[in-house]
User: What shape does this take?
Amino acid sequence: MKFSTAATLFAAAICIAVTSGSAQIIDSSPSAQEPAAQPARQDQQPKGEVIFSRTTDENGQVSTHSSLPAAQPGAQPSAKPSAQDAERKAVTFTGFDMDVRLRGAEQHMAVRALITVRNDGKTPLAHIPLQLSSSLNWERIRVRGKDVVFPVATINSDVDHTGQLHEAAVPLAESLGGPLAPSASLQLDVMYSGTIAQSAQRLLVIGTPADVALHSDWDEIGVPFTGLRGCGNVVWYPVSSVPVLLGDGARLFDEIGEHKLRLAGGHFRLRLTVEFPHGRAPTVALINGHPAAITVTEASSPDQVQDAAGVATANLDGSVLGFEAPSLFVAIRTQSIATNTTVWALPEDEAAVQPWTTAATTVTPFLQVWLGRQPRSELTILDLPDPQDAPFESGALLATAIHQANPDQLDGILAHALTHAWMLSPRAWLSEGVAHFMGTLWVEKQSGRDQALGTLEASRSALALAEPPSPGESAGQPLAAAISPVYYRTKATYAFWMLRDVAGDPTLSAALRAYDPAADISTQDASLGFGRGAGPSPFETLLEQAGARRDLSWFFADWVDADKGLPDLSIQGIFPSAASAGNWLVAVNVANAGYAAAEVPVTVRSDSNSVTERVLVPAHGNAVQRVLIQGKPIEVQVNDGTIPETQASVHLTKLDAESGNSSSSGPPQTEKNSP
Assistant: This one.
């Protein structure tokens, strides 16, 4: 049996990578200092300890050898899960320190990780549920320096593309310190491995056509492309989630959102090692959307075997997770540089890159006015393997098929995507809400206000259906702790349109330019997350300091920090009276049957003029706004589509053309329209 060049290169790179990090393959805890196995060949004198080596026999079969102490029997197959949903919900991950090794040609992954969990439940946890994709296998788990024996059950859950998870229930016996008390934290040392190939099983079982399913679930490990989007697509890192299935309403998407919310504020570190065939080194690595510099080691001298594998390494240190599922991308692509943007494209798509870089240049001045001169990160656009693959976003990363497209369409895409590079907020309603807000503002700039408000109206009905009829009936989802896209995207976009009208463009843009995600993190204990129970965002203070209106507490109380549903506005009465010099004074009585207050635009029109004033209408209350207009009033409008309502977004009342009056004995006849 002989050692290949690949074995030597791979072992050397692993040795370097492992000794530089804290989550090393050799356990550094005092109880784990065991003698390493002797090298297979006594005549070799390596300068570092060989952690992994690979050999090839006469038949071409590849074997991997480890100098680690033999792991104690850990994983024990179980016919049924040991964990309950209450236990799964109680576990919050606050830290990941991962050492990940990929062999693309074999679609293989091997991971050693130190993970920190906190018990956010109300009772002690006797064991910790840990889940992985069903294509990955638990190998070893250590608690407080001791190996544990743990049952592993297969559970059905569509948070993974295979439709199943391998769940380990890690026991916390008295010998390991006993159950984990509420609010207490614990670090676990875990090892697992397996293959991740493309799978659309969860979609196929519900009848999705195969081609559609595979373009949606494109996650896999490979040589030219590795894409692992995290929980909701492929569970390549430990999670603790409630099993949910597609087709069960919005439960799957809520569970994915809950997972992201509970991770927000967690600390993340990853060291990556990739083995690749000779001449096919990866050119780009992205960890949680962040570009990671790649170091490549590959055979180059003539006497070395030309088919020998090479090794690439990359690191991400000291990052804090936002509202995101950890993701990992490694690919062979060609780089193109644009304004605040880097595009990594397939060779066959390089001709289509120019319109994308032009779009980045086109929208940047617009974003600079609203968000500041420079983004906090460059946007990375990664070309997906197939033109039909579904796009994916994570922070300042946009993974999408690079293709020829209409410039107007690309401008809108880049206005949204580049906003993420400016914001990078750990709070979902700020990160996603501002990105969608800027997208609609770009529509307004290019096509007018009516077109922009039409894009808002298109999603209002879904929001109205999701909102609880009353706060007492359901807690709903406050924007500050939202887990559903209809809240942290749709409702948040409406919130910024309302703040724009309440505070004014200069004030809102000043607050957005002043917002600093790093300062937001420093004012909030990141280990406690940015969801339920998190401290208030400093954005409210920034708004109040930037403008003349110093008190916006009513808005944040009803629209951000609590979910009070949507307003239900109506025109209860219109009372016009003639004044001097052809002027008319019109009193408009506006009622709000909803539980959320709203500052509403009231517009009065005559044949030659139009005047708009704003009035704050309290929840379950009325407000009267008086409007002075030149000429006889013919129409009154309440709301212009910027405030989402339960039934309508625009209320119009035509006045009697002869008298200029509407009936004062009862509510006027009102047309409820969309913008």
